[in-house]
Amino acid sequence: MIDYGYIIVPSFILGFLSRLSMLRIDYRQYPSYPQAAFSHITLGAIAASLGALAIPAIAAEQYSAVTFLSLAAQQFRDVRNLERQSLDNIEPTELIPRGTAYIEDIAKSFEARNYVSMITSVLVSISIFSSSRFGVGDQISVLIGVIIGIAVIIYLNKKIKRSVLGEIADVKEATISFDGPLLLVNGIVIMNVGFEDSREIYIEKGIAVEIIPKDENGLATIANVGQRQAITHEAAAQLGIRKDVDEPDFTPMIRRNSENGNLVLSIVALEPDVECLIEIVKSTLVLESAKRKPLASKYGKKAAD
């Protein structure tokens, strides 16, 4: 294997860099810093090393070493299960829960990123090995592998980039009003607010938006309950909420207009900036489990015409 060091080292480095390029630590603090982030960095290094070793192992006729790739795949599936379990365990501590669909989406993304790291290493390894076998010098072969590796990283990052709500729907400011104890947003009933003091707080500090899908695909996607939970969680996480435990009056609520499929969201935020709320909703990730494309079907497209 020492003879293949010029293949293994650059393949590992580029595979590891591909994982680092997808590591995000932001306001959501997931993965949390530094424990969970360190775990994902370590798994990325393992994935990169396995991918880097695959081609040299085959070339050296060490076929048993390749079986570790299947073991790695199983390990990465276990990572997905562990991420899901971890988030499920802390879900009851959230004032505004993420929802099971959001949790599943996070778990799947972490599993996929380890595969991307492995794929990058394998492709770089193949590139260097193939170039050297065609009589190209080792240094040139490594350079070719690095160029291909960078191209793969850029391509895969674009391919797995997540869609955001602003791509499938427009978001605009909405008006909060009351009909007796009923809280309304643009005429859509949100909930019953029994206390007069709570209603005054809504009028004074409440903000609201309306989410208008751009087409039937967006209409079907935002109707998903999991997607709607993700929107309310993101709004509460970034703007803060007045709600405390056992204060249902100030729970951020999102309701669907059954006439046209639009959504309306109301929230009493600690930072009641409606422009920020609009941008937050637009930047909310579209969950993979919520995506629907009725326009891709023959009859769905026909019905929309």
TrEMBL record:
Pfam families: YIEGIA (PF14045). The chain crosses the membrane at residues 6-25, 37-59, 139-156. It comes from the Bacteria. Keywords: Membrane, Transmembrane, Transmembrane helix. This is YIEGIA family protein.
